[in-house]
Amino acid sequence: MNRSNLTVPPEGAPVPAPHPDAPVGVPLGPHYARCFGCGPDHPTGLHLEAVSEDGLGVSATFTVGDVHQGAPGLAHGGVLATAMDEALGMVVWLLRKPYVTGRLETDYVLPVPVGATLYIRTRCTGVVGRKAYLEAEARMDAVDGPVAVRAAALFVEVPVAHFERHGAGTSGGDGAATSGGAGTSGGGAGGVASAADLGRRVNP
Ligand SMILES: CCCCCCCC/C=C\CCCCCCCC(=O)SCCNC(=O)CCNC(=O)[C@H](O)C(C)(C)COP(=O)(O)OP(=O)(O)OC[C@H]1O[C@@H](n2cnc3c(N)ncnc32)[C@H](O)[C@@H]1OP(=O)(O)O
């Protein structure tokens, strides 16, 4: 894909193993029940479903719905970037450390119609200090279908306080904190209900 050097790891950057508590080969479940990308409680979200792969990688599916259109009958590009962002974020979540997207680069290769299912594969290509380098590819309607979207990203590790400081209504106790749902079925990854909950689940 066309990518800047900001999303390419320096030569020899190591790819760490997933945290021992991270699930392998089972559905990850949502990381947060109201997440726009993966949350089951989000009415118009992407409802991305993902499974971890060997090494530090994830495979995920996203089916484009009516509510995801930009041009008539076609997925909005921002929605597709969100799906890639979400699937990339699931990779670093396997490290059991909080990360946020610092930079996301996207190549739109094919138009993606409503009703299409994207098969997204993401992997970490290196970690240096707080910076995790990641890449992703989405194929249309089959795991070996044509490539529709490619992405590369730099995620930056942040302290749990990042979410406590900047998130509105996520510290628990108000309407934003749900049961978390995540990981309560299918051996999921262990979702969070609040920033405080995130603090209990990540590994410093
Ligand atoms: C209720 C709580 C629930 C929480 C649940 C969380 C669980 C997560 C689990 C699972 C995730 C699943 C999926 C999620 C998917 C979606 C992820 C998103 O969409 S995240 C939202 C969008 N992103 C932001 O809102 C970031 C906003 N930006 C920032 O906060 C800062 O700019 C930040 C943290 C990215 C960097 O700020 P600094 O002050 O901490 O650090 P500095 O020193 O600036 O950067 C550190 C290094 O990174 C590089 N860097 C930073 N930004 C860069 C950029 N845009 N491009 C290139 N390099 C960059 C810098 O050059 C520096 O590199 P050098 O150490 O000097 O080598």
Quick summary:
GO terms for molecular function: hydrolase activity. By secondary structure, the protein is of the alpha+beta class. 15% of the residues lie in helices and 27% in strands.
Structural features, described:
- Residues 169-191 have a biased composition (Gly residues).
- The protein has 204 residues and is an alpha+beta fold.
- It has a single domain, classed as Hotdog Thioesterase (Thiol Ester Dehydrase, Chain A, Roll).
- The chain is 15% helix and 27% strand.
- It has three helices and six strands.
- The protein has helices spanning 77-93, 161-166, 195-201; strands at 49-53, 57-63, 99-108, 117-128, 131-140, 147-157.
- The radius of gyration is 16 Å and the shape is globular.
- The model is unreliable at 171-188 (pLDDT under 50).
Can you give keywords for this protein?
6 strands; alpha+beta; 204 residues; six-stranded antiparallel sheet; 15% helix; Thiol Ester Dehydrase, Chain A; 3 helices
Distinct ligands: ligand 3VV
CATH superfamily: Hotdog Thioesterase
Mean model confidence by pLDDT? 88
Low-confidence stretches: 171-188
Structural class: alpha+beta
**What would CATH call the class?**
Alpha Beta
What proportion of the residues form beta strands (DSSP E)? 25-35%
Number of strands: 6
Order of adjacent strands in the largest pleated sheet: 1-2-4-5-6-3
Secondary structure tally, helices:
3
Q: Return the CATH topology.
A: Thiol Ester Dehydrase, Chain A
Largest sheet: 6 strands, antiparallel
Beginning-to-end CA distance, first to last residue: 34 Å
Biased composition (Gly residues): 169-191
GO molecular function, one term: hydrolase activity
Catalytic activity: dodecanoyl-CoA + H2O = dodecanoate + CoA + H(+); octanoyl-CoA + H2O = octanoate + CoA + H(+); (5Z,8Z,11Z,14Z)-eicosatetraenoyl-CoA + H2O = (5Z,8Z,11Z,14Z)-eicosatetraenoate + CoA + H(+); (9Z)-octadecenoyl-CoA + H2O = (9Z)-octadecenoate + CoA + H(+)
Biased composition (Pro residues): 11-21
